[in-house]
Amino acid sequence: MSACPGRILLAEDDRHDQELILRALKEHRIDNEVVVVDDGAKALDYLHRRGEYASVPPGNPALVLLDIKMPKVDGLEVLREVRATEELRMLPVVMLTSSREHQDINESYTRGTSAYVVKPVDYTDFVSAIGKIGAFWGLLNEPPPGTVVR
Amino acid sequence: MTADQNSPQRPVALIVLFTCIVAGISFGPTVHMAKPVELMPLWAHTIIELWSIVIAFMAFSVVWNAEIAERPGRIVIIACGFLATGLIDVAHMLSYRGMPDFVTASSPQKAIDFWLSARAVQAASLFLATIWKWPAFKGPRARVRLLVSALALVAFVYSITLFAPEIWPVFFAEGTGLTLSKIAAEYAIVALLVPPAIVLYREARGSGSREDIDLCAACAISILSEICFTLYASVTDIYNLVGHLYKVVAFFFFYRAIFANCVVAPFERVKKEIAARESANRELQASERLLVEIGSNIPELLTVRDAASYDLLYASPSWERILGRTPGKGPPEWSPMDSVHVEDRARVSEELARHPSGGFDGVVRLVDACGTVRLVHLRTFPVRDAANEVYRIVAIGSDITERRSMERALEESESRLRAAVHITRLGIFDHDHDRDSLYVSPEGRTIFAWPSDEPACLERFFEGVHPDDKADVVDAIRRSFDPKGEGRYALEYRFVQAGGAIKWIEAWGQTTFHPDGSEVKLSRTVGAFMDVTQRHELADALQSLNRTLESRVAERTAELEKANAELEAFTYSVSHDLRAPLRHVVGYIDLLQRALPAGAGGDVERFSKIISDAARHMGMLIDSLLGFSRIGRTPMHLANVDMGMLVTDVRAELSHGLDRAIEWSVGALPVVLADATLLKVVWTNLVSNAIKFTAGRPDARIEIGCTRGASGDAPHVFYVKDNGAGFDMRYSDKLFGVFQRLHRREEFEGTGIGLASCKRIVERHGGRIWASAAPAGGATFSFTLASTSKAVA
């Protein structure tokens, strides 16, 4: 469907959420390559191409989906480092979280998130939301320079 | 009469002179012996004798007729003697040679007979008068007897000399002169005169009075005269002349003594008496004038009464002035009883009766003419005459009405002050700089713990002042002693009592000054002081309590902050972690349904729908709960909020997609100071409830409005009224609790958190929310915001 589907990095510690998100993307036939990492530390390793991700070829993903509450390094910390890193600072980052807390929303936008989406409890709503995010950021949105396009 | 004449020198000088003359004649050249001269012719003798006779009669007349009650015996005797002498001298004068016949023919013998008789009577009377201290002759009888005796003596002399001259011895022989008998007789007479002369001389020396001197001189000159008569040879020679002249001089002295005694002295006495009486009168008048002046000026009520009759003799004008009347007159009561207050009369008359001659001393109520009662301090005392007899009673009454009322006012004011000082335990001090004495009141001594019997002094006070405060106290007091300043000080210091207890004292002082020449001197310092130890202890306790409280508050705040942080963490965790499992349940149920083979519906489909609904509902509950918790935690942003616009927005949002007709009635709503976001939650909840609970009614009506409070300060009351299902007022207290429902969820949708949120928001605004309703009768929800929530311009 898409002309240039970029890579999507999904940072999500919950296996079930990972599955449901992947399913929702698939349901919406968003066939961008999705790299799933279990925590913030791994997400940063991936983006910096270090540790177990040292062999990843250069180039940024088209979108990063960040859960906030994650083991080791949380989503807000990842966001802060992304915006602080010269090569990553223009990366589209969408916070995808259960929290509707003001402090989370405020903090995310302060640190420069591109969007903030609360995961709906209703599965239909959930699928719809994920689909819209994927469609917008993965396909519709023109990614910033340095994004690896397959 | 001068003092000079009173002096005895003159008669003495005269006597000396006379003696010298006699001596001179005797021992001088005897010219006269050779050639006798007729020195005393008949006329000269007659004149000289007449002189002495006149003087003798005058002397008698003076004594006899003098208007004196008591005649000195001596003078009366001498006077009578002189009368006899004078009468015999008349015969002697008539018998002198050359005189016409007096019964018988004149002759020197006849003249000498009478002469010697006269001299003898005279000398005898003098002897008699001086030889005895004669008492005064009071009645006339003694002197008449004496006169009769004198006259009898004269008659006897006359009769024998005229009718039996032969009885007399021969005294004079013609040619040879004096006979021896004559000389002897003369010497006998001189001898008779010597004792009176001595007696009188002594008396004159003793008294120095002129009469005595005159009498003495008269005697002495008489003696000289008699001596002359012993010497003459011829009746007309020098001795005879000098003797006769001396006799006249002696008679003059006798007369002067008698005249002085009987006329001058009484007259002098009377003059003195008159002068004394006049001066006494003047004194009396002056003292009377003084008394009247005192009486009319004396402010006291003064009365003088006769001690015997009690008659009023004098009442001072002050009676009229003070009481408008004068006291009652006369017996039986001598007090001004008609002025005495009726209730006092019995007591006063009893006491006055007990002191009949003064000595009453008491306070009496007197009533003046207008009926006003005056308090009078009345005293009575006696006035005694020279014989120490009481003859006047004087009463003095002082009007003490004003003084008494002033005393009473003073007493009251003093007792008030005493009570105030006692109640407040205020110590008073008074430092007299002139005498350097210090007074400290009993309360003050209690504060200092000074015994009442020991003297107060400044040194002792400074000893007691706490060492740390001494410099301040000394400085403050010294500054108050500066005459250029106000002389005032107020300070607080610690005082160490003898027992070691430390007292906090608050003191105020005021120094006064008085000018002393060019300097200004300290007069006195008066002040008060108080034991404020308790106050200080309280303040200290309060301070330490405050410190404790602060630390306790800090502790509690920390605890609260910790609890808040924990709550925050809890809420955060709930927000993140509680919703994920639900999502998974819903998600996987959905996946499960899709995985089921077609037509496998029935129970499986129904069950999975129930599970899915339940999970969704739980998601809603969690969202509501988190929302509710957020309402309590988010900070308030107060601003002017137009309630009308807010309600319009809410109504628009809630009416959107509503498939039934509702009759709206929205009144005018004010602008208030509030948090717009939170208030929107309130309106949304209340209006959505109203919509929800009118669902079953075809004529649904919702009224929104605001009523002003009764008074200006009372807050607005906002309300939402519907005609929906309503509720039972018995459960109204449950309405605003979290998850409290009055209807089943199947009847009306809802999480049971909306009204609890409303309550929390209204209360955060300082207001109140309540509801009234009846089942199926509709419900009214009302709320207020704080009275301070008025919009600010």
Describe this structure in words.
The complex is a heterodimer of chains A (150) and B (793). In chain A, helix 1 crosses helix 5 and helix 2 (40-48) packs parallel to helix 3 (75-84). Chain A is of the alpha/beta class. Chain A has a five-stranded parallel β-sheet with strand order 2-1-3-4-5, with helices on both faces. The model of chain A has no long low-confidence stretch (mean pLDDT 86). Chain A starts with 7 loop residues before the first strand and ends in a 10-residue tail after the last helix. Chain A has a single domain, classed as Rossmann fold (3-Layer(aba) Sandwich). Chain A is globular and about 35 Å long. In chain A, helix 3 links the parallel strand 3 (63-66) and strand 4 (93-97). Chain A has helices at 15-27, 40-48, 75-84, 102-110, 123-140; strands spanning 8-11, 34-37, 63-66, 93-97, 115-118. Chain B has 793 residues and is an alpha+beta fold. Chain B folds into five domains: 15-25 and 37-269, Rhopdopsin 7-helix transmembrane proteins (Up-down Bundle), CATH 1.20.1070; 298-406, PAS domain (Beta-Lactamase), CATH 3.30.450.20; 425-523, 2-Layer Sandwich (Beta-Lactamase); 532-634; 635-789, Heat Shock Protein 90, CATH 3.30.565.10. Chain B has helices at residues 3-6, 9-27, 31-34, 42-65, 73-95, 108-131, 140-163, 180-207, 210-231, 238-297, 318-323, 342-354, 401-424, 442-448, 458-464, 467-480, 533-595, 603-633, 643-655, 676-693, 754-764, and strands spanning 172-173, 177-178, 301-306, 312-315, 361-367, 373-384, 390-399, 427-432, 437-440, 488-496, 502-516, 519-531, 639-642, 663-666, 671-674, 701-707, 717-722, 768-773, 779-784. In chain B, strands 4-3-7-6-5 form a five-stranded antiparallel β-sheet. A five-stranded antiparallel β-sheet of chain B has the order 9-8-12-11-10. A five-stranded mixed β-sheet of chain B has the order 14-16-17-19-18. In chain B, helix 2 packs parallel to helix 9 (210-231) and helix 4 (42-65) packs parallel to helix 10 (238-297). Chain B is rod-shaped and about 240 Å long. Chain B starts with a helix and ends in a 9-residue tail after the last strand. The chains are: A alpha/beta (150), B alpha+beta (793). Chains A and B meet through helix 1, helix 4 and helix 5 of A and helix 17 and helix 18 of B.
